[in-house]
Specification:
about 130 residues; mainly alpha; single chain; globular
Length: about 130
């Protein structure tokens, strides 16, 4: 049987957020913060999909933070993407340092302050997009 990827940004949001929380509680705040940032990215993409916007390379939306922030500003101008507009301040702050590449950071480079900042901003994005109450 050949394996085929079925993407679900909605399901990935919850899974990555919970895994980030678990890793942070287990003493790995850097990896936890990274996964929480990924959850914020997935929350944005899930919200765009709910608004009927395709996540593809042509639109630039099939990218990662911080490139995703630019693509959102160009492609998310519908009333259905209003949650993302509310999430933009936190998303912009998150994008100043967080990238998909933080997964390669050496031990100790991502300090506790940075982890807390990424978590706070990611949770603001998840809240604005309806993933947290």
């Amino acid at each position: 049987m050949v394996w085929s990827l079925t993407e679900s940004y909605e399901q990935s949001t919850e899974r990555l957020y919970l895994a980030g929380f678990m890793l942070e509680d287990a003493g790995d705040p850097a990896t936890g913060a990274h996964l929480t940032g990924m959850a914020a990215e997935c929350a944005v993409k899930a919200t765009l999909e709910r608004a009927g916007i395709a996540i593809d390379r042509g639109s630039g939306l099939r990218s990662h933070i911080p490139e995703l922030v630019q693509a959102v500003s160009l492609n998310a101008a519908t009333r259905h993407s209003l949650p993302i507009i509310h999430a933009l301040p936190a998303l912009l702050t998150l994008a100043t340092e967080y990238t998909i590449h933080t997964r390669y950071a050496a031990d100790g480079i991502i300090d506790d302050y940075r982890c807390a900042l990424w978590r706070t901003n990611a949770e603001s994005v998840l809240l604005a997009c309806g993933f947290l109450a």
